Amino acid sequence: MRRLMCSHFRWRRNGFQGWRWWWWRQVGGGDAAGTDNALVYNGNIVRQVAGNFGTPKRPRAGLKVFLLGLFDENEKGEPEYERHFGIFRADGAEAYDLIFGKYREEAWQCFLLCLSRICQETASTKQFRCLFSSVLAVAAQIGICYGQVANNLPPPSIAVKILKDNKIPNVRLFNTEPTTLASFSGSGINLTIGVRNEDLHDLASGNTGTSLRWLQSNIFQHVPPEQVQYIAVGNEVFLKDPYYTPYVVPAILNLFQALGVLGLSGNIKLSSPLAASVLLDTYPPSSARFDPDLLSYVKPLLQFLHDTGSPFMVNVYPYISYTNNAKFISLDYALFRGGSALRDGDLTYTNLFDASIDAFSFAMEKEGFPGLEMVVAETGWPTGGGDAAGTYNALVYNGNLVRRVVDNVGTPKRPGTGLKVFLFGLFDEDEKDGPEYERHFGIFRADGAKAYDLIFW
Questions:
Q1: Can you give the residue range of the structural domain that contains 57?
Q2: Which EC class does it fall in (predicted)?
Q3: Which of 106, 198, 367, 378 is catalytic?
Q4: Is residue 451 part of a domain?
């Protein structure tokens, strides 16, 4: 069990100094004091606790941690740094941007108990509730892909229960299978619903009425519109199914018009997930560009996304990049564990995921579309079937990614910019084509147990 709390005191026992967890002082009073170092130290402590890492002697053993402190305490004694541990200022503003994660209610109760008795100025309870709610609110940005290319999966109703039990608020479905959609109806889970590649021709060749009938019979007959966040029109079409490539944007435009008829075009966003292979020259990220043979299809898609405020969707698999280029990419770099950093102008990359995402940002800029919102529609690490596959590496990759998303770390090119990420995938899919590892991305087993102990918040 993990507990994260805040305190204005150190905890001591009679004659024995027990567990002591300090806030790093945030300004002044000593060597290495400062908001940057305070954020690094305390942010890492928060992630250690939230991730239930424990210690080398007690791995995975939860720790209750009291963080010092709520405010600076200007009447404390020497040395000077003792007066500079506050993460909030007297007016309620943050001294630095620390994110506590999911422990809203527990931390609120503790914070109320820990209001400093010796600081001359304090925020009112009303002010503090406001600042606390804003600081600890974590955007629901993590989702999971629910693929069903398998013959041994539990019924969709069990999948819904697994998602709710694990507090996973977003799911991506790859088709409009009626039983699956009906199982999600009323669940409170946000849906990204896929249009099959083979449906693109009919949707592109028809008119608004054709798309309207398709939406009504395939989606809204089974789930209410307010549960649908995105419609993913095709998947990796430019890579997998070049025959359907000319139909992607026309299908999107017809669906957009149909959503407009229903008054839903402002609420349900349309996009088409692209494979990372649509880029060329991705090393370093700033040199990335779209494949010239695809530009005549990519640019109209970017224009639509820009005009409608819709996200650019991409599927990113550092695992595949690593295994295809193991002589040049270290496993640590692929797993968010550092390794040799990549300098790209003023930017520094310490992991392959960030470099992959920013490569798309640079490529879009070159085509005149900077700043488009991005959604990672698929990413993950297999638990078997290939080099470096396994439950440990899958936990390291997905665990590090979840923490980065929850903490709104962003990327070197877009620091602090939230990124919605869909992890692949819910279950192993034993009937998928391709290399063996393609069938081993499941985070959960068919009986609902976790393949590894991933925490999603």
A1: 3-136
A2: hydrolase
A3: 378
A4: no
Is residue 314 domain-shared with residue 415, that is, in the same domain? Answer: yes
| pTM of structure | 0.74
Which of these three, 136, 155, 182, is where a domain ends? 136
Number of structural domains the chain divides into:
2
Q: Is 80 an active-site residue?
A: no
156: left (phi over 0), alpha (psi -120 to 50) or beta: alpha
CATH code: domain of residue 424:
3.20.20.80
Q: Which of 120, 136, 152 is the last residue of a domain?
A: 136
Same domain as 121, residue 147: no
Do 161 and 121 share a structural domain? Answer: no
pLDDT tens for the chain, residues 1 to 457: 444 444 443 333 333 334 444 456 666 667 788 876 887 788 777 766 765 667 877 766 667 788 888 888 888 888 988 899 989 888 777 786 676 654 444 444 444 444 444 444 444 444 544 444 444 434 448 999 999 999 999 999 999 999 999 999 999 999 999 999 999 999 999 999 999 999 999 999 999 999 999 999 999 999 999 999 999 999 999 988 899 999 999 999 999 999 999 999 999 999 999 999 999 999 999 999 999 999 999 999 999 999 999 999 999 999 999 999 999 999 999 999 987 899 999 999 999 999 999 999 999 999 999 999 999 999 999 999 999 999 999 999 999 999 999 999 999 999 999 899 999 999 999 999 999 999 999 999 999 999 999 999 8
Give the pair of three-digit tokens for residue 203.
């949707």
Judge if 111 and 186 occupy the same domain: no
Name the nearest CA neighbour of 45 among 68, 15, 65, 26: 65
Q: 211 with 121, same domain? A: no
78, 82, 236, 436: the catalytic one is 236
